[in-house]
Design goal:
- The chain has helices at residues 34-37, 79-87, 137-144, 148-162, and strands at residues 2-4, 11-13, 18-19, 38-40, 44-47, 51-61, 68-77, 97-100, 115-119, 128-131.
- With 163 residues, it is α+β, with helices and mostly antiparallel strands.
- The chain has a five-stranded mixed β-sheet with strand order 3-7-6-5-4.
- A hairpin with a 6-residue loop joins strand 1 (2-4) and strand 2 (11-13).
- The protein is globular and about 45 Å long.
- The two termini are 19 Å apart.
């Protein structure tokens, strides 16, 4: 099954991962203040030298399918854990660290501030984000897996919202 990439406009084969370029808190900082108050790169964000975020991946198993659906999200971190991560960026020897989910995963309801744990993997991989095992549907899906058709439904939710 193929899809058209919203970034490059090309057709691609296979199930794509989806994700967010910045934590939700970034949007609360006025445009004209972001340059002075926010330090953002592809994997980390600091706001006002007081709020610390890292980017990781929620992996959702897909029934009878070798791949997972990856959802790139941001979670908050305590200052000392954030800097331990920066100091050991490519190590699996730290953590796991607690954090609050700071991305609104729109397909699911009310995902902001779900409890998480960041598991660091090293080898150039972003941390794997594990949700607290609650009855929230995103946590249930991560724990129990989803069908391939639901995975495509989630992907198309994002592709269609970007179009």
């Amino acid at each position: 099954m193929s899809y058209r990439c919203s970034k490059c406009g090309e057709e691609h084969e296979g199930l794509p991962d989806i994700g967010f370029d910045r934590p939700a808190a970034w949007f609360t900082v006025p445009d004209d203040e972001r340059g002075a108050r926010v330090k953002l790169d592809a994997d980390t964000c600091i706001i006002d030298d007081q709020e610390f975020y890292i980017r990781g991946v929620i992996e959702i198993p897909i029934h009878h399918h070798p791949a997972t659906l990856g959802i790139g999200v941001w979670i908050s971190q305590k200052k000392e854990n954030f800097f331990a991560y920066l100091d050991n960026y490519d190590s699996s020897e730290i953590g796991p660290y607690f954090g609050w989910l700071c991305s609104s995963v729109g397909y699911y309801e009310e995902t902001q501030l779900l409890k998480t744990r960041a598991h660091f993997r090293g080898h150039g991989l972003r941390p794997c984000i594990e949700l607290e095992p609650t009855n929230h549907q995103l946590a249930v899906d991560q724990r129990e897996g989803i069908s391939l058709s639901k995975a495509w439904e989630i992907v198309h939710y994002y592709i269609d919202s970007l179009a």
